[in-house]
Inverse folding.
């Protein structure tokens, strides 16, 4: 824009200089013409006087010049006059006019050259004085010229400001700030070009939304069941893989298999429409129940079988949830068939850390068969009797443990590196552990669900932010390490926490640019309207924003652009064994394609092998974290 302003000023200066040069040439020509005209007029009068003297000398023997020549010389404003014949003076005249600027004429008269005339006259323009009328006309002319120049300058400046506005809008487009360019059409000129830019920006915005819809369509056909619009078998496998590692399940929870008896026969008798209505009604009812269960998984495993996975739940809560699910199913209006009382069967298997996925699915299938053997719609829970001792703590004991950990500041920060493709450190993600009175570390997967139930998440995350700002960043060498911190929905909905975070970031603004705040995709999608002003505040404070667990659900990526996230992190269910899964590669390629022409960086979570990282780099992922780069370490 500086170059545009410079060119604009140069153009206006050139126009002013050209106009001034034309005016100067015009005035100079007028003055020269005036002087030349007066000289010619005086020369004409001298020639007339010369003619009269020659005619008088030829026609009269006596001069008798005193009678008529002095009045004529007086009319000529002559300074002096001398007429001589053969060197002898004939007539002399000395005027009363005294002038320093004179012009002397010395001429020989007659054909024989006996007469010689010496005439001294004032320069023709020296005695000319402008009259009031002439001065008025001159002033009016100069005023008109000045007014025209001023009008031309303002018109020219206005037109060029329109060009500059057009250039500024074009620069916004080149910088990728399309929304700002679309919202500020300005007074760009030529207006035709400005209107064309507005139309193209509107079409581009529509094309981007269409691209997001197309991207969602691709992912929907990859991971969603086309009839029920919930996850398919592949989706279930990916999500179970994400909840497990080579050593088995990484947390405790429960898996249910819900089977609808004789669904195929019912479809043959009544047609597909009543069956689809039954499926949709059942799925909607189950979804309402699962809304209270964080990170739950719901998928269609086969034509007549649904799978539900709920992590971080106790055995007693799993039994209660199974009973609620069965009641939801039995409340559906079934068509009049013989097996109405023996149509829904639910089998569940409670799992703990270290259980294998294959064994878990076999146990859930055995529980389902046990429920079917009971002869009526019922549920059955497969219980190995192995419940994690840590998880067996009651709510009161958990609250006491968490409050004491807060008072003793026993929440420990673990950092895991996030590496770029060239081997450089992108940032470190902060994870949280709690230290019990015996010095043992308690995993976040154990205490966070309880902390959420007890409403202690804002206090815990405040300690983590303080630890990162005042200890980790203070210990950095003139360093430039960046850190990412996960924020929960409870913290961002807490006015006290948001007010404290805003004040802290304002006070330590020089450190805010090195902070990245992460939110889960599920939280952003479900609470977008409430979170938008908080995210905008964090961005204005200088911090960057990241959305993680991307890929857990099939949603449009338009929210990433509209909320202006700087990074996204692919969920481990998408990353795991991606080198062997073309459908996951298609998902990542589609996601990155939907973010084309944006500055959003795509990172991956849970990278465990070189093959996974190599495949992700080929697909366009710029950074990754996981056991392949290093496990979280205490800081």
């Amino acid at each position: 824009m500086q170059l545009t302003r410079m060119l604009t000023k140069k153009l206006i200066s050139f126009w002013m200089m050209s106009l001034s040069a034309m005016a100067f040439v015009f005035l100079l020509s007028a003055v020269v013409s005036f002087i030349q005209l007066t000289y010619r007029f005086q020369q004409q009068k001298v020639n007339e006087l010369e003619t009269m003297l020659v005619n008088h000398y030829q026609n009269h023997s006596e001069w008798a010049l005193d009678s008529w020549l002095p009045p004529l010389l007086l009319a000529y404003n002559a300074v002096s006059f001398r007429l001589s014949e053969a060197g002898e003076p004939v007539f002399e005249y000395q005027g009363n006019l005294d002038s320093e600027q004179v012009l002397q004429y010395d001429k020989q008269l007659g054909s024989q050259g006996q007469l010689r005339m010496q005439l001294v006259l004032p320069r023709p323009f020296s005695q000319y004085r402008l009259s009031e009328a002439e001065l008025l006309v001159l002033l009016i002319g100069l005023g008109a010229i000045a007014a025209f120049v001023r009008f031309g300058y303002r018109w020219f400046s206005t037109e060029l400001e329109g060009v500059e506005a057009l250039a500024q809008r074009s620069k916004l487009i080149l910088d990728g700030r399309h929304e700002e360019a679309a919202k500020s059409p300005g007074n760009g000129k030529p207006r035709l070009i400005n209107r064309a830019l507005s139309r193209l920006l509107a079409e581009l915005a529509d094309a981007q939304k269409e691209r997001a819809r197309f991207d969602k369509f691709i992912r929907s056909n990859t991971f969603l069941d086309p009839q029920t619009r919930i996850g398919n078998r592949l989706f279930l496998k990916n999500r179970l893989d994400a909840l497990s590692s080579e050593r088995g399940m990484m947390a405790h929870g429960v898996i249910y298999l819900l089977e609808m008896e004789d669904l195929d026969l019912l479809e043959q008798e009544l047609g597909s429409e009543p069956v689809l209505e039954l499926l949709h009604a059942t799925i909607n009812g189950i979804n309402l129940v699962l809304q209270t269960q964080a990170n739950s998984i719901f998928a269609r495993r086969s034509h007549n079988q649904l799978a539900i996975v709920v992590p971080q739940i106790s055995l007693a809560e799993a039994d209660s949830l199974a009973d609620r699910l069965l009641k939801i199913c039995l409340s559906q209006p079934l068509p009049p068939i013989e097996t109405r009382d023996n149509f829904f069967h639910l089998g569940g298997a409670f799992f703990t850390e270290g259980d294998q996925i294959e064994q878990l699915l076999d146990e859930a299938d055995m529980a389902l068969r046990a429920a079917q053997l009971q002869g009526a719609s019922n549920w059955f829970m497969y219980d190995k009797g192995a419940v994690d001792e840590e998880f067996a703590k009651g709510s009161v004991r958990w609250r006491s443990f968490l409050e004491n950990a807060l008072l003793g500041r026993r929440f420990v920060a673990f950092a895991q590196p996030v590496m770029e493709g060239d081997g450089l450190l992108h940032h470190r993600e902060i994870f949280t552990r709690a230290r019990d009175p015996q010095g043992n570390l308690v995993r976040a997967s154990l205490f966070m669900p309880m902390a959420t139930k007890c409403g202690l998440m804002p206090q815990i995350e405040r300690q983590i932010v303080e630890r990162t700002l005042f200890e980790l960043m203070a210990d950095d060498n003139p360093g430039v390490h960046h850190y990412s911190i996960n924020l929960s929905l409870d913290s961002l909905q807490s006015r006290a926490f948001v007010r404290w975070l805003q004040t802290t970031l304002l006070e330590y603004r020089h450190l805010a640019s090195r902070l990245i705040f992460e939110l889960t995709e599920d939280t952003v999608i479900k609470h977008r309207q409430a979170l938008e002003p908080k995210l905008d505040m964090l961005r204005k404070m200088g911090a960057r924003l990241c959305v993680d667990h991307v890929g857990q659900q099939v949603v449009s990526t338009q929210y990433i652009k509209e909320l202006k996230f700087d990074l996204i992190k692919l969920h481990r269910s998408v990353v795991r064994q991606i080198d062997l899964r073309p459908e996951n590669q298609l998902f990542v390629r589609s996601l990155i394609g939907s973010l084309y022409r944006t500055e959003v960086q795509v990172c991956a979570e849970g990278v465990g092998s070189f093959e996974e990282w190599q495949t992700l780099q080929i697909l366009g992922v710029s950074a990754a974290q996981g056991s392949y780069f290093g496990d979280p370490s205490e800081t």
